Amino acid sequence: MALAADVPKDTFRLSMLIYDTRYRAITIQVFVLILFGLFIAWLLNNTAQNLAARGKEFNFGFLWQRAGYDIGQQLIPYTNDSTHFRALLVGLINTLVVAILGCILATVIGVFVGILRLSNNWLVSRIMTVYVEMFRNVPLLLWILLSYVILSETTPQPRDFRVTDEMAAAGEAPAASMILFDTVAVTNRGTNVPSPLFVRGLGTVDLGPVSLNLTFLAYVLVIGGSIWTWRRIKADATAKQESTGLRPTTWWKSLAVLVLPVSLLSVALGLHWEIPVLKGFNFAGGILVAHSFTALLIALSLYTAAFIAEIVRAGILAISRGQTEASYALGLRPGRTMNLVILPQALRVIIPPLISQYLNLTKNTSLGIAVSYLDLRGTLGGITLNQTGRELECMLLMMLIYLTISLLISSVMNFYNKSVQLKAR
Amino acid sequence: MSDTHAQTVTFVRDTMLPPIAPPSGDSGALKWLRENLFSTWLNTILTLVGLWVIYYLVASALPWWLNSVWNANSLSECRAIVAENAGPGATGACWAVVHQRWYQWIFGFYPPALWWRPVLTLGLLFAALAPVLFAGQKTKLRNILLGVLVYVLVTLWLAQAPAVPFLLAVALVVGLLALSQVLPGKLLWFTALFPALCFWLLWGGPIWTPISAILGFVIGALVFRALSGATGPAVAVGLGVVAAVLWWLFVAGPVMGAVGRMLPWGLTAVASDQFGGLLLSVIIGVTAITFSLPIGILLALGRQSDMLIVKTLCVGFIEFIRGVPLITLLFTASLLLQYFLPPGTNFDIILRVIILVTLFAAAYLAEVIRGGLAALPRGQYEAADALGLDYWRAQRLIILPQALKISIPSIVSTFIGLFKDTTLVAFVGLMDPLKGITQIVRADINWKGIYWEPYIFVGAIFFIICFSMSRYSMYLERKLKTDHR
Question: Considering only CB atoms, which chain A residues are within 8 Å of B426?
């Protein structure tokens, strides 16, 4: 006990800040904080000096000036008289459209390929392996450039679709023809697809900066309602199955709930399709989808699908073989084994890496600049930046927006992930 | 035995029947076909679809490959040759473009007379990597260095290197070879010197620049060694760093300038805008890989740390970098760094890009390594504490070797991603092989309208490099696997 009494009491020496583990953590943190503060101050000081030297100031007023450039693909009304902020919004929407469509397509292809890679069909699994390895080991940029070049350099010119009187008389076919029952024309200028038109459209409501398309809103509401009702029907069926042991037949109810309201709405609004027609030197009517969009979408979804396929495969392989055997022992067929036993468990392994693939895809949409797709990077970080010369503001704003999108996606997906994870009790 | 039955049973077989061969449908190729391709009707459909896809691809691509043209001066000449050989309307690949312009895809606009420098650097890179990958294994080191020697002899002769550097390079490799057999441990000194040597070989300039950079480290080490006894290691490290920084900032310039005027030894300088093609990709890729791994490890440790401020800073950095596309960071390198640095600073665009790519990869690596750290059982940390190891010893001896081993596959796939992402430097005006050089070639009036061949060529190069990296990681994973599952 005498030893314990020898411990010096509260004799604090300066060297203890470094050599005493009780204080060292605090010393290091204070030191790091000071260094970090100095670093930030240094950056800010440099930035202020540089801005002053160039006669610039840091403000975002330029966003409300006239943009003065056109954007090919615009899902909200925009002209070159609109503001830079409006251009930013158009670009942001273009980014989101490619990202969302790309995520959906990539997931569908990826799950399909991942499952086929595990098939016991020798040939099919080899083909899928080749696909996955080919896309994973070559830069995404190559796939974007290649699909763009192929789309815009090998597709026919609009005039190749023309049937002249002489050709009709001689019974010759034109050099190129439309696909999908003569509704879609792929030319070197873009893809012409039919556009929906409404006889009794609901019009739009102007809400200051944004205008709301009521027809679109009606469709969203009706489809959302249908899906909600459908899920209720399924939940009811499951409840009944759990109480009585018999599952009521629901497929006709589901079909009716999913199909009827949308069809009724379409009839009520007088939906018809405007099919592109060759007029003069170009196609008129319908919507012209630029090749930059198509190429970006194709390349992004095929590339990401290869990664998703690997994730799905790894997730399925992670489920122990005993689960499959147990399921077979219960008399479930292979299809139901997959749906009811393997996939629900594999999903827990699959979702976290899937989230990061979605994030990657979203960030990779910025490569659209390679094919002049005017997304956020092309409008705000491209033309607006060059026209106004405000690199600092544009880049910071753009990073902030991308960061927000990333954080949003990851928080939404993490929330979903929490809901499928095993509840540990 | 059969005697007992001889009276009661009319016939007793006393030899084994020879086994009958399985039915013809249940053996050999037929069985394999039935089990692997036509087991169910769904499988049969899949097989047929697969066969159709293969047939379609082969039917459309094979004539194109077979009619390849290797010698021509323009695309129209190519087409004329194809039409002449295979008849009008036939398609044929025009590899003549690769034949004629391969050097641009490999070296960019690096002066042809100086090609031996990047070529030599690549050989020395393997010599520098060998002691890291195969520490102390004399035979493996010997084999690799012999390979490097042969490579250096052949390629330098092909690239027509001048006599003096040729002899010096060969002497260097032979010296390393001898060293590897006598003192294999000392070979790591070459690895440590290699970065300075590599940048001097590639960019040229007076030899005093890399020497002054190395001297900074030497001075720092000397200060540390002199003071560590008196002040304790922590303070000595700080003072060593300060001394090295003082040397680089204030002393190195005048001293080395004076020496350089007296002894103007050096290589022809090559400006950064002449770098391009695969050379550029490999420079950015290898440098970023080398530097991102230690930074990534530090960030991961910082994120796992108990110190709140350090942890917050690391999390903030990692999440920021991971949340924005690499392109925006590259644009930061080309447009914004001039705002953040003191007025008048203007350093090389390749260096700026390398720094940003390194930070980008480091953030991703940090997350991968954090996964490895989190996967270690808690007992390993406690065991390290129980042994009385301090933080850094515990990390170095117990935690990191296991955590890094777990995360090898993900680390290598991050590296593969990084190498593929080096093509994005095209967007800040550098000539990467994929967009920059291919665009230049396709803009040539002779090769206008060619698209499959250049992209296949570049794609094949990337595929070979990335695929071998992924195979190497699988090999490493198998080799390091010590659990018995």
Answer: 141, 370
Distance from the Cα of A369 to chain B's closest Cα (Å) equals: 8
Most confidently modeled range among A208-212, B23-27, B102-106: B102-106
Interface of A with B in 212-271 (CB under 8 A): none
Run of H or E including A139: none
pLDDT cut 70: percent of chain A above it: 95
The one-letter amino acid code at A389 reads: G
- Residues of chain A positioned with their CB less than 8 A from the CB of B36: 120-123
Assigned token pair, B336: 């914004």
Task: Of A341, A348, A289, give the one whose Cα is nearest residue A314.
Answer: A348
**Binding-face residues of A in 396-425 toward B, CB within 8 A:** 398-399, 402-403, 406-407
Least confident window among A303-317, A331-345, B27-41: B27-41
Tell me, what DSSP letter sits at residue A27?
H
The overall average pLDDT reported for chain B is 86
Determine the residue of chain A that is closest to B454 in CA distance.
Answer: A146
- Residue A206 is inside which H or E element, if any? strand A204-207
**Chain B nearest CA to A194, separation (Å):** 29
pLDDT tens readout for residues B162-215: 888 888 889 998 998 888 888 877 888 888 888 888 888 888 888 888 888 888
Alpha helices in B41-111 (DSSP H): 41-66, 75-86, 96-107
Closest by Cβ to B309, choosing from A19, A33, A370:
A33
Q: Phi/psi of residue A66, each to 5°?
A: -70, 135
Which residue type does B215 have?
A: L
Distance CA A213, CA A255 (A): 28
Q: Decide if A119 and B324 are in contact by the 8 Å CB cutoff.
A: no
Alpha-carbon distance A400 to nearest alpha carbon in chain B (angstroms): 8
B325 and A363 in contact by Cβ < 8 A? yes
The partner residues of A271 in beta bridges, in order of sequence, read A198
Distance between CA atoms of residues A297 and A299, nearest Å: 6
Per mean pLDDT, which range of A4-13, B25-34, B42-51, B207-216 is the poorest? A4-13
The predicted-structure confidence for B276-303, as pLDDT tens digits, reads as follows: 889 999 999 999 998 999 999 999 999 8
